[in-house]
Amino acid sequence: MHDRPSDITKIHFVASEAPEAQAAFERLTARYGQVRPEEAEVIVALGGDGLMLQTLHQHMCHSVPIYGMNRGSIGFLMNEYHEDDLLERLEQAEMSVIHPLRMKVRDRESVTHEALAINEVSIFRLTYQAAKLRILVDGQLRMDEMMCDGVLVATPAGSTAYNLSVYGPILPINAPLLALTPISPFRPRRWRGALLSNEAHVRIEVLEPEKRPVAAVADHTEFRHAVRVDVHEARSIGLKLMFDPGHALDERILAEQFRY
Amino acid sequence: MHDRPSDITKIHFVASEAPEAQAAFERLTARYGQVRPEEAEVIVALGGDGLMLQTLHQHMCHSVPIYGMNRGSIGFLMNEYHEDDLLERLEQAEMSVIHPLRMKVRDRESVTHEALAINEVSIFRLTYQAAKLRILVDGQLRMDEMMCDGVLVATPAGSTAYNLSVYGPILPINAPLLALTPISPFRPRRWRGALLSNEAHVRIEVLEPEKRPVAAVADHTEFRHAVRVDVHEARSIGLKLMFDPGHALDERILAEQFRY
Amino acid sequence: MHDRPSDITKIHFVASEAPEAQAAFERLTARYGQVRPEEAEVIVALGGDGLMLQTLHQHMCHSVPIYGMNRGSIGFLMNEYHEDDLLERLEQAEMSVIHPLRMKVRDRESVTHEALAINEVSIFRLTYQAAKLRILVDGQLRMDEMMCDGVLVATPAGSTAYNLSVYGPILPINAPLLALTPISPFRPRRWRGALLSNEAHVRIEVLEPEKRPVAAVADHTEFRHAVRVDVHEARSIGLKLMFDPGHALDERILAEQFRY
Amino acid sequence: MHDRPSDITKIHFVASEAPEAQAAFERLTARYGQVRPEEAEVIVALGGDGLMLQTLHQHMCHSVPIYGMNRGSIGFLMNEYHEDDLLERLEQAEMSVIHPLRMKVRDRESVTHEALAINEVSIFRLTYQAAKLRILVDGQLRMDEMMCDGVLVATPAGSTAYNLSVYGPILPINAPLLALTPISPFRPRRWRGALLSNEAHVRIEVLEPEKRPVAAVADHTEFRHAVRVDVHEARSIGLKLMFDPGHALDERILAEQFRY
């Protein structure tokens, strides 16, 4: 009831480089103050989805919730921008918890790289040569050989991002699923992808990696010359996004499915 | 081994009208006997998916499991046909439990009809006039007006049936989802449908039902001149399908997603 | 200007049954007169695309051009509705000439039926049983067996109608092509159809017509229990549609391709 | 009849680097001789479609016909490989003449580059930032702003290549059309592309080229940091491909449309 921890006063603001995000940052820090991220009860991100992804990545190890206000071109993860009533909105906001994907990449030097992805892990050709990929799910061979621009594994939160552009389905935010979606498949040319359990371990093996080099990308973190990529959901990490009531991520994704 | 309850001896066989299904029925009842359905420990269905659907509908109130063997043209729900080893196969079979959809239809005489669907509930125009439909999910208007041949709501088990023909996504058998998929949408012409929680209540309202009559169909049970159709999952009813090890419904649907 | 033949004075008006079309009919015939169709220099159709199709069919044997004004729900073939300036608009209108399809249907009684289609010839299942169809192009077998709701052959003019709802491509009005597009294909489930030369002769053979009856439909003219359907363009028939400058059919179809 | 110019004796062989192409080159030149390209009546290309494209580009200014034999992984443009009867096959081969696209690229330094494309001209993002493109056809703005991986313009011959991977339609080889197809469109997310007259001039303008750099690619010739790309068919250039009877390009493309 009372003395609820949600009497938020300590805010850390971040902003994208866009002039209108920077201007908002000036006005809002002047009005509501600015604490260091370690002390913050909430991080308020000013920009578009690009900034939100970046902020989520940067604060993945803390458990501090993040509230975005849209000052960018695409704001699927952002609330409407208003300067007034920020404290009230933060107190009334609804929380959505999402889990990232963990990507492990082995490159042609046999070095292993690791990164987390909130939206998607994608594999993409590095030259005009089409990629030739093999797909295993839970250790079982499922796609022997696919020639394509690439393939991606998307979370429900990411299903409205790159996955949507390559004609993958939008997933309800609470669906225990991952979308495995081909990018410009050439052979087999009509494969549309698969919906997998969120407990699935997906392995992508790169065939002919010298002739057909690919990059493995976790959101925007890229590793070149991958030869094998493993992807699974990192259930132990929970990212907290805050949304104005009636506009939480489940409603946003549901509404997005009925847009046309 | 010892007295496990799975020492099945009481089988009720059913068969489709196809000659090869009838011939199989003769040979198998001669060999394994034939008990009445009320006494059966398992029902063995001989035919294709059409017969399986029919058998599931007929025995929905019992809890007796059903094992199909393929003697038809489409056998997604059927095991391979062999005459030998039937008892051993039944004992080793894996069980998949699926829930049907409950459809409630109000027609133009204000009469209410009810039926269950294992695969899908579909709404379809009765004349060459396109249907004009409105869609609500959990009481909330989601699609104001769609001109189309129709729309369907599919279960995961049904996602590989009519839903697949109209370009809906295949759902893993355990995904707590329903697929809402338009059939030949004219306006909005690019809407691809939505994946909904399996707890969703879907209501389809028929606009201009006199000029644009539609039928509501639960699997093959049709009610004409529907004006309102309500659909939700009947969680209280669990249908038991038996599959040979390694070929249970989850694996079948997963494999189906990688077919091309 | 001077006595160009385009000094149109003899108009035959037709209208759909919709109240606003009927009201327009009253006002326009009062203002511009009404001649019999045989005497008309132009037919002015008041309604939507449905009326336009009907009018085109009714006057297919004359060579009188038709000018539509939109008083209906879908007006792709219609000009904007204004009551003033009609004579000037008719004189300045641009003409698009389109060719219909000729459909020849053989039914289960071996009776042959014939009809013309401006938009499309479609084959569609008559019961819940999926149709099983075979497709030949210019006498050559191209699709051995397709299980589906049906299939259609669309003209460029019709490519924005039913063809578009079933995900067929929009064709430029002058493209010498026909679109052959499956309707809810079940097997082969990923076939997307073909673009054929407008000189192609398409034959659809209905397999298992007793178990799986289908109708053959030319626009809205339906023949039930078809067992074989032949379709080709009737080049000898040219239908004249009139459009306000800058809004002729080629521009409309091009613009339609960039809608989303 | 007799002394037809088609008594081919002067062949120039080319081969890809693949071992089996190189081995074929050794055997065939030993058997049929090898003349310089300038003297050749026909060029025989040994490899896959990649080599064929390269060979067509290299000899675009001559009018010498090219006959391919498949020693590669994808051989849509290639005939079957046999070592015997080559002269007879060359004499009986059917000719398909295709026209390339001419691409003019202006880059961020205002330098203009030009290249020809047999399959397609594609525009593609150079970094993870989505491209933002504007599309004009014949000087008229048709797509104000599209966020995407890119876009392509394909010839009928190229419609079965990259265009097919990004879900563009296959075009009959003689259709006077070009396919304009989006690559992973993010906004407008459901635009499927357009079929344009082969006389169309397509202009792609790159928006925010500093933040969102793109490459313009004609088949495999790439120019980076394009800010404007113009594409139209080069009718004056006719490339001659030779195919065994019954397997010419029109038949190949028609057959490809019925594959699934």
TrEMBL record, chains A, B, C, D:
Q: Name one GO molecular function term.
A: NAD binding
Superkingdom of origin: Bacteria
Main subcellular location: cytoplasm
CC cofactor: a divalent metal cation
Which InterPro entries does this entry report, sorted A to Z? ATP-NAD_kinase_N, ATP-NAD_kinase_PpnK-typ_C, NAD/diacylglycerol_kinase_sf, NADK
Pfam families in UniProt? NAD_kinase, NAD_kinase_C
Entry function = Involved in the regulation of the intracellular balance of NAD and NADP, and is a key enzyme in the biosynthesis of NADP. Catalyzes specifically the phosphorylation on 2'-hydroxyl of the adenosine moiety of NAD to yield NADP.
EC number(s) from the headed UniProt entry: 2.7.1.23
> In which compartments does the protein localize?
Cytoplasm
Catalytic residue positions:
49 (proton acceptor)
Protein family membership: Belongs to the NAD kinase family.
Cite the binding residues for NAD(+): 49-50, 119-120, 149, 157, 160-165
Q: Which SUPFAM superfamilies match?
A: NAD kinase/diacylglycerol kinase-like
Read off the Gene3D superfamilies from this record. Probable inorganic polyphosphate/atp-NAD kinase, domain 1, Probable inorganic polyphosphate/atp-NAD kinase, domain 2
Q: Which UniProt keywords apply?
A: ATP-binding, Cytoplasm, Kinase, NAD, NADP, Nucleotide-binding, Transferase
Q: Which gene encodes it?
A: nadK
Q: Which organism is it from?
A: Dichotomicrobium thermohalophilum
- Top class in the EC scheme: transferase
Q: Which reaction is recorded as catalysed by this protein? A: NAD(+) + ATP = ADP + NADP(+) + H(+)
What's the protein here called? NAD kinase
Could you mention a single GO BP entry for this protein? NAD+ metabolic process
> Which GO CC annotations does the UniProt entry carry?
cytoplasm
